């Protein structure tokens, strides 16, 4: 039996759930690969299942690395406004047979996530400067 390509499956997923743009799923897939590589590196090359919270951390790091200050704008444009949206997308891909899950995995794993403003906008806001100590002014001598 021939498996369907990701693009064909993605077309079906987006048709069933149009909340998220195709680009959002491509980003999610890339962020999952990024997260798996990071976990594998930390575990001396051993692959293992990625938890929802680990994926959220990887998504944040990957988005900031790839898109910098535009990350929040792009995510919002793709229909992603909170961590739970990533959970919905993951389970859309699980339902389509693209991703697998364990018996304990659930959409709720993405619920205790992070605030998008804090995660994606705050790293690029200017830091507040501390006022300099008053320096005495010298008057010109004539």
Average pLDDT over all residues:
91
Helix content: 40-55%
Number of helices: 6
What overall form do the CA principal axes indicate?
elongated
pLDDT < 50 stretches: none
| SSE pattern | HHHHHH
Percent range for β-strand residues: under 5%
Integer-rounded radius of gyration = 21 Å
Class by SSE composition: mainly alpha
How many strands?
0
- The N- to C-terminal Cα distance equals 96 Å
Strand count, sense and closure of the main sheet?
none
Description:
The chain has 142 residues and is an all-alpha fold. The protein has a domain at 27-124. Helices cover 52% and strands 0% of the residues. The chain is built from six helices and no strands. It has helices at residues 6-16, 22-42, 52-67, 71-77, 83-95, 116-121. Helix 2 (22-42) crosses helix 3. The longest helix is centred in the N-terminal third of the chain and has 21 residues, at 22-42. It starts with 5 loop residues before the first helix and ends in a 21-residue tail after the last helix. 24% of the residues are buried. The mean pLDDT is 91.
